[in-house]
TrEMBL record:
Family in the record: Belongs to the Iojap/RsfS family.
Tree of life domain: Bacteria
Subunit structure, as described in the record: Interacts with ribosomal protein uL14 (rplN).
NCBIfam families: rsfS_iojap_ybeB
Places the protein is found: Cytoplasm
Protein name, entry field: Ribosomal silencing factor RsfS
Primary role: Functions as a ribosomal silencing factor. Interacts with ribosomal protein uL14 (rplN), blocking formation of intersubunit bridge B8. Prevents association of the 30S and 50S ribosomal subunits and the formation of functional ribosomes, thus repressing translation.
Encoding gene per record: rsfS
Presence of keyword Hydrolase: no
Entry-linked Pfam families: RsfS
Xref: InterPro entries: Iojap/RsfS/C7orf30 (IPR004394), NT_sf (IPR043519)
Amino acid sequence: MTVPDLVLAELRTAAAAASDKLATNIFGYDVGERLGITDAFLVCSAPSDRQINAICDEIEVQLKEKHGSAPLRREGRDSGTWVLMDYGHMVVHVQHEEERAVYGLDRLYADVPKVDLGIETDESEVA
């Protein structure tokens, strides 16, 4: 299964927005076949709660401006360590670097195809 073009465009917009706010370890995963409830995950990291919030804000602004999309649900904004933004067809995870290492979404979804986000990523940085 491949990520639909509309979802891919939004995933790339979200990845670029995260990159603009200096998110690290930005990866997209095609989870549609595995989960069935969403097509893709975007996972990225930041070293502080302030930066996590800045990344989330920029992703929301860019997706709204370029695609008219708004999250259906947001979880974790107050914790500052892991924010999940559910857009229905994709889910964005912005995690504190330590949370990412502990919960290991990258390890959990290591067997699903990665999505080409159209940005530079360093695969060696994945926790």
